[in-house]
Amino acid sequence: MIESTCVPLNVENIDTDQIIPARFLKATTREGFGENLFRDWRFDENDKPFDDFVLNNPQYSGTILIAGKNFGCGSSREHAAWSLSDYGFKVVVSSFFADIFKSNALNNFILPVQVDEIFLSKIFKAVEKNSSVVAKVDLKNQLFEIAEFNLETSFEINPYKKECLLNGYSDLDYLLSKKDEIKAHEERRMLNLV
Amino acid sequence: MIGRMSKTLFEKIWEKHVVESKKGYPDVLYIDRHYIHEVTSPQAFEGLRKRKLKVRRPNQTIATADHNVPTLNQHLPIKEKLSRFQVETLQHNCAEFGIELFDLGHEKQGIVHVIGPELGLTLPGMTIVCGDSHTSTHGAFGTIAFGIGTSQVEQVFATQCLLQYKPKTMKIEINGDLGKGVVSKDIILYIISKISSSGATGYFVEYTGSVIRSLTMEARMTICNMSIEMGARGGLIAPDEITFDYLKKTDHAPKDDDWINALKEWKLLKTDKNADFDKEYVFDASEIEPMITYGTNPGMGVGVSQFIPKRVINSTALDMEKALDYMGLQVNQRIQGIKIDYVFIGSCTNSRIEDLRMVADFVKGKKKANDINVWIVPGSKKVEKQAIAEGLDVIFKEAGFELRQPGCSACLAMNEDKVPAGKYCVSTSNRNFEGRQGPGSRTFLVSPLTAAAAAVTGEITDVREMI
């Protein structure tokens, strides 16, 4: 269960180049990407913050990012998920997510919450009205709620991934447990049986 | 397993690679070929070390340095410290885990999606992944090929498998006759402009129709390459004689009896007559003009003779306003005649020998406009060598085009090849996102032919008026 204020970023088609520009992908570790999250929207060429960008607005903070539809399109860089997580986001709410981003997010225990477009616009309005309003994300019951504005909706997540998130399991753990099946498949392939 | 009688090519390849399919769980999918590069692999190798794991099938993995390499003076050490460190890290990792590396300076080095096919490492019927979204390129050979994140790169290293939900299937059929000056890049930019940059999310595409069948492998790769730009996991084309002819000449394709046996299997790789797709589109090739994008996602594209529209499918007025503001353009503005500053011919979309030949054919005896920088970055050492053998380098030099050395270059501007803020670049790459070609850069996506025309006139030009 996550309870937090929200950071609204009402822009559609946010691609992973905006989340973390390519010139910051030169690191060989997973740490420290939060510093450059939304770099070119956050800072000008002299590293001076843009006052009108939401991450620079002291009114907004929290672990829930609310974003326009088709969030995370473009490049498959997992650095996008690492930078969101390193900055402190645990949940991204949007009306539509790009496939690869969604999978990268889940592999980094960031929960993508997909809601319908009308509901999304209601969230934006609520947060605009009251920037300190608290949203509740209940993964177990698959519910997103902003009680103060009577906003509540359920969201989808596939049961396997839900199990992973709730228990801290990774896909790699699951795949490593399938060693025998993988070996059998390779043997069948060698004999041209599949 | 009881399946439907008629199956799509995608379903046939998928089923052959399912290690385990369990209700409520994603399929365990076996991966035949894993390509890696310096940017999205270091953290995956580090993960293996932490868990004391090995690469399960090092001989199914191929590495190259492409994203972060300079395109000038490749014989010298890389100047930029972080880039050099990343490339060196790839060298150490490949040595430690026993993976073949086509490193900077190697005769087989190049953009990962250019070298895989040209070396015959990408073969029909395979499952192929790489930590790069343009892995969809390899679908041109009748493969299931898609981009993955670094955690998944680690999973493939350790197990040669991925956990995947089967995507929905989409058929895109293109029939009719292509007009003068219209090439494969225009076809895919047209399709994306009709379907939008998110219209194929959740789908795997099969491209069919008489136009697709008539295209060369290079042209088919350009189309499959940009499948991700409409959100698709990947896009494939059933292999045919054109595919087999291309592969026969490659270094790593099967030889002798192995070739004959492989060919028998490959000829079965097609969608059954009555197979169902979840979604189908049919387009008429004669309606396609040379295309150009004007906005900040690849769905914002129109014919080069058109005006900038008010709205774009699957997007709001606000989105359009933001894009045009960034680009310094207006609704209803005529695109032709806009003055440009840079021309970039390269990237995994359009840097193959055929692309370079197309440009050379057009510019032979012409000169670039004054005050314009034209960069031609070949996709691989092999392409570079071939271009020089054919004398294309001389044609480019006479035209004032700068032929550089292979790499991803200004497609994503990770190296020093950056377009300055506010400048317009006509580019044969695949993404026109804000800042993609350097902070503040403004990109127009086009075909190599339209790029060459712009280089000569110094403005956005309808190439049909020049051929």
Mean pLDDT of chain B: 97
Distance between the termini of chain B: 55 Å
Query: Helicity of chain A, in percent?
Result: 25-40%
First-residue to last-residue Cα separation of chain A: 45 Å
Largest beta-sheet characterization of chain A: 7 strands, mixed
Tell me the structural class of chain A: alpha/beta
The biggest beta sheet of chain B reads: 5 strands, parallel
Q: How many H/I helical runs of chain B? A: 15
Notes on the structure:
The complex is a heterodimer of chains A (194) and B (467). Chain A has 194 residues and is α/β, with parallel strands linked by helices. Chain A has helices at 16-19, 39-42, 79-87, 99-107, 117-129, 159-167, 171-176, 179-190, and strands at residues 2-9, 64-67, 91-94, 111-114, 134-138, 143-146, 151-154. Chain A has a seven-stranded mixed beta sheet. In chain A, strand 6 and strand 7 (151-154) form a beta hairpin. Chain B has helices at 9-16, 42-51, 81-97, 112-118, 150-159, 184-195, 210-214, 217-225, 241-248, 256-266, 317-327, 353-363, 381-389, 392-399, 448-457; strands spanning 18-20, 27-30, 33-36, 61-64, 100-102, 127-130, 144-147, 161-164, 168-175, 203-208, 234-236, 279-284, 291-293, 301-303, 342-345, 373-376, 402-403, 424-427, 442-445. In chain B, a hairpin with a 7-residue loop joins strand 13 and strand 14 (301-303). A five-stranded parallel beta sheet of chain B has the order 5-4-3-6-7. A five-stranded parallel beta sheet of chain B has the order 17-16-15-18-19, with helices on one face. A four-stranded parallel beta sheet of chain B has the order 11-10-9-12. Chain B has three domains: 9-164, Aconitase, domain 3, CATH 3.30.499; 168-287, 3-Layer(aba) Sandwich (Aconitase, Domain 2), CATH 3.40.1060; 292-465, 2-Layer Sandwich (Aconitase, domain 3), CATH 3.30.499. In chain B, helix 2 crosses helix 5 and helix 6 (184-195) packs parallel to helix 8 (217-225). Chain B is an alpha/beta fold. Chains A and B meet through helix 4, helix 7 and helix 8 of A and helix 2, helix 3, helix 5, strand 8 and helix 11 of B.
